[in-house]
Amino acid sequence: MSTSFLLLLIVVIGFVSYFGGRARSFAQAGGKLSNLHSLPGYHGSYVAIWAILPAALVLGAWLVAAPMYIDSSTRATLPETVQTQGGATVELALGQVKSVAGGLKRLTAEEVSALESGSANLRSTLAAKGVALAGEGEPYMITAAQHFNAMSATNRWLMSAVVLLIAIAGGFYAIRNIATRFRARNQVERVMLGALIVASSIAILTTVGIIASMLSEAGRFFTMVSPFEFFFGTVWDPRFAAAGSGGSSGQFGLIPLLAGTLYIAFVAMLFAVPIGLFAAIYMAEYASPRLRSTAKPLLEVLAGIPTIVYGFFALVTVGPFLRDISAQLNGLVTGNYQNFIQAQSVVTAGIVMGIMLIPFVSSLSDDIITQVPRALRDGSLGLGATRSETVKKVILPAALPGIVGALLLTASRAVGETMIVVLAAGVAARMQINPFEPMTTVTVKIVNQLTGDLEFTSPQTLFAFALGITLFVITLGLNIYALYIVRKYREQYE
């Protein structure tokens, strides 16, 4: 029985148990709901929880423990000559045994007998059934594969029987507990509270796990490279040093990458903030309800476009346009039609990233502006101020703390962008202030250096964790500061 079908059966049992619990609560009440401590729906939910939750927990534990036990038992059937060769060899043999086990399920009894007698080649027989096997295969693999299949089949049936039995027993146990004064609501709410705590804990523990893994690997990197060299170095050249040079790795200066990250994010914000803020002011204060209901969703569509599409747009359209228009301007001024804006440059990435950030700025700012109390608007207009004066001198000052927080959150989004920078700004790690030349960011170098199959044993790969934790601290600092600004300077209205 497959796991998905087993889960479906558990849900069906829980569904039936729910109505069984409701029916029993009605019967216990004698037709008067006032006799019950909890509503019938709570009694039904209580029975359904007992039918589903224990069975689901046992199923999850079984799915984790059973494969490990089966693998351990299958390893024990391997010959001594294989087991004494070490862990890598044993795991490779176990993987081949699992491939053979999958192939044996497709063979007839005659074909299996031919393999056992040695009259047929294992690899060619399995290849005819569409199963690829590394190497020719060994005779012991057939016996081990048959053992693996037998244990897997036994495990599936035993798991199905135990889980279904627990589900049915849980339902019957809960139904027997139902009485007129039984506090079913308290039991159900306790379970729901536990589920909420588990969900919250998963999110928190995931964050803690990510930070811990990054810190541990970054610590390994800093045992190989000086933190002073990393945080204050001005050269990024993570190559292995030449033989005889006296060093073990290249140069890992963070400043060029950090400068490119902040420079491109600054250009993007310089482009996105005015457009997004003016759009928010127009939609909140000037647009009619019909136009607002149409324009705001259309503007927010930009937020749903994948960043790789923005990257293609920068690579194919914006970059060549800026390059060609710069050549035309240079020709009109100097007569030399040589472009002074590269197709891949800081300004190209900044403009396209700014387009991507416009809906973030406009949507957050619009929500903040609309939260300003209507009484402030009416009071300003009643005193003779125009609408533009009301916006400039009343609404924007009142909404400014929230807008600043929104802009800082948008900036943290810009700092972490990758795909647009890869295609629009290049991969050159250098320090310069010309926005018409290529630069790169922290995220781009992480992607470039970790492309392919790598082992995290050298500074050239471990540096990604140091870059990652640095970027995490930067974005976390921006988010915390944004929340601080909002909470400290938020104006409270009656």
Give structural notes:
The chain is mainly alpha-helical and 494 residues long. It has a two-stranded antiparallel sheet. The model is unreliable at 240-248 (pLDDT under 50). It has helices at residues 3-29, 40-76, 80-83, 87-104, 109-117, 122-128, 139-177, 184-224, 227-232, 255-286, 289-300, 307-334, 346-370, 374-382, 387-415, 419-424, 442-449, 459-489; strands at residues 236-237, 251-252. The chain is built from 18 helices and two strands.
Q: Tally the helices: what do you get?
A: 18
Tell me the strand percentage band.
under 5%
Q: What is the fold-level CATH name, i.e. the topology of the largest domain?
A: MetI-like fold
* Count of individual beta strands: 2
Mean model confidence by pLDDT: 80
CATH architecture of the largest domain: Orthogonal Bundle
Please compute the radius of gyration using only Cα atoms.
Answer: 33 Å
Give the overall silhouette.
flat
Main beta sheet? 2 strands, antiparallel
What's the CATH H-level superfamily name of the largest domain? MetI-like
Strand order of the largest sheet: 1-2
How far apart the termini lie comes to 63 Å
Helix-strand category: mainly alpha
Estimate percent helicity: over 70%
Give the H and E element order: HHHHHHHHHEEHHHHHHHHH
Low-confidence residue ranges: 240-248
**Which CATH class of the largest domain applies here?**
Mainly Alpha
Q: What number of structural domains do the residues give?
A: 3
Outline of the structure:
With 494 residues, the protein is an all-alpha fold.
